[in-house]
Amino acid sequence: MTKNTKTRLLMLSFSLMFIFATGCISDSDSELEDDTIFPRGNNVAGSPLEDSFTGDVWVEMLVTDDTYNSPSYNVIFSKGARTDWHSHPGGQLLFVTSGEGYYQEEGEPARLLKSGDVVEIPPDIVHWHGATADSTFEHVGVTTNPGAGAAEWFGDVTDEQYNNLVITTEQNSEKDNM
Amino acid sequence: MTKNTKTRLLMLSFSLMFIFATGCISDSDSELEDDTIFPRGNNVAGSPLEDSFTGDVWVEMLVTDDTYNSPSYNVIFSKGARTDWHSHPGGQLLFVTSGEGYYQEEGEPARLLKSGDVVEIPPDIVHWHGATADSTFEHVGVTTNPGAGAAEWFGDVTDEQYNNLVITTEQNSEKDNM
């Protein structure tokens, strides 16, 4: 499979999500209303993305044009919702716009995130991100160097892992050493 | 009510108005405090960036690591502040997080921007962005394909240009054709 094909398949996944996902009206939806800055998009439930998350998560693609080499998306996590463990061959950036969440690299303590935080996720680092148990969480994500290939997924962040997090106040990203 | 009482009430009204007004008149820094999501950074005044802007503008670099090929920065414009006309050889993305502003491509009407809007700026398109006359404006910017070269600058958006904008409700970016 060529890198271009992988990128196209990734985009196809997102497109299918738009086609099949329905706007779920639920308590969680209205709970999120005030926190949302970028469009909420669709609940991943029932879409090809569903298997990559735990809990209620909404994804809206913001930038898909290949010109920019920066697929960008808004992700909103309900309380306790999170991605699976995964990695990006070309890295990823997260820009946190509301709520509180976590970012954890495999084998490291979790970093507590809040509005205004930026996370630099190096290529091939296995990690997850998501909301705290008490807060919704919203970030813009940018997949960097998308030509390096699609994200790889490594299974759920289990309840046991999530409920026994060690939280650090240190920041993981290189940016924070500036 | 005696004239004296009326006079005293009138004086009290003026005093309260004065106190209230004084409370509302603030320097640009504190005016921006509540709108800021990402770090405000430094006023470009006195920096090498100063010549590329009109008005009070604050810039904070968010991502500088070459690994990501996505130099990212938060820009906060005070009311009426704006970039000069410029273009990016590799394009640029803007993610609007607060306030109201404009994006205009040369020869086109200006697009009115608000929180949650995304602008895709194609390579080599001459454009500017900045605040409306009545609102501060904050966006995260990402320079895409930075290897294509540095931004080129083409001089001020003059007061005459700024004060005679034609505003469109159409969105300029390709994203909006999705």
From TrEMBL, chains A, B:
Q: Which residues form the signal peptide?
A: none
Gene3D superfamilies recorded: Jelly Rolls (2.60.120.10)
* Top-level taxon of origin: Archaea
State what protein this is by name: Cupin type-2 domain-containing protein
Q: Where is the Cupin type-2 domain?
A: 75-136
